[in-house]
Prior knowledge:
Blueprint: H1 5-23, E1 29-34, H2 39-50, E2 54-60, H3 62-71, E3 80-83, H4 87-99, E4 105-108, H5 113-120, E5 134-140, E6 148-151, H6 161-177, E7 184-188, H7 199-212, E8 220-225, H8 227-231, H9 233-238, E9 251-253, H10 257-270, E10 274-280, E11 286-287, H11 295-314
Parallel strand pairs: 1-2, 1-4, 2-3, 4-11, 6-9, 7-8, 7-9
Antiparallel strand pairs: 5-6, 5-10, 10-11
Amino acid sequence: xxxxxxxxxxxxxxxxxxxxxxxxxxxxxxxxxxxxxxxxxxxxxxxxxxxxxxxxxxxxxxxxxxxxxxxxxxxxxxxxxxxxxxxxxxxxxxxxxxxxxxxxxxxxxxxxxxxxxxxxxxxxxxxxxxxxxxxxxxxxxxxxxxxxxxxxxxxxxxxxxxxxxxxxxxxxxxxxxxxxxxxxxxxxxxxxxxxxxxxxxxxxxxxxxxxxxxxxxxxxxxxxxxxxxxxxxxxxxxxxxxxxxxxxxxxxxxxxxxxxxxxxxxxxxxxxxxxxxxxxxxxxxxxxxxxxxxxxxxxxxxxxxxxxxxxxxxxxxxxxx
Length: 321
């Protein structure tokens, strides 16, 4: 059934609104905001603070931050600012503050993703854990009935089977810990049958078996599934796929970064979807947004990260994952 534009608009706001409302019910997280030197990143942090979701600590060139705030009428008076000379120093200091326990979240500002992630993944001084670091897009697609997680479309380029296991577990943990229940996880490929000609179908089947044996927990997995029969019940019915996941997926696991990035951007630009972003598998959740993201999308990213951080406060075992 087609969704009218008005209905789609209501549905879109309802998805992120629920996450933001839930985040307002938990203690705000001290958030190290790295290099907020443009209007969107500074206003995103400011509005999340005004909503009571985060307590920002702004790290970056103080003169630049103050100038942006003045030019765009953003009140940064209540926030602590730690002055740095340039973005490389800012990224390193932001990570150092997290290691010292002075923040619960790390939030990307206007620097390049590579700069921040280089500091995060540094072997001696970064924020690595035993778990592979991965990215999740929390998509608000107007024509889809619930939030849609896509992973990994930003960090791991060509993940192997072990990396995919961590990527899936990270996404499942996020989904469950933000209060969305037990996720239906579709492992995507070009087709829904296992064939040696397409290696991602073999990996999908192996990952499902790993879930059966307890190597992946907390979600319901199925794969390989093509995109259409992962998200459309009628497509799944026509193909004769009978599973709890087919046609109703909530987490989409892509074969590689190229496929995931194209999928996420197609949904953003052709289906008018919003894409909140978060990095998992590090010592703390990392709000990793695009410089083109709206303030509202940044708010949703903060909300997801804060809910996950609160779950980690209440369940210390999650912090060791």
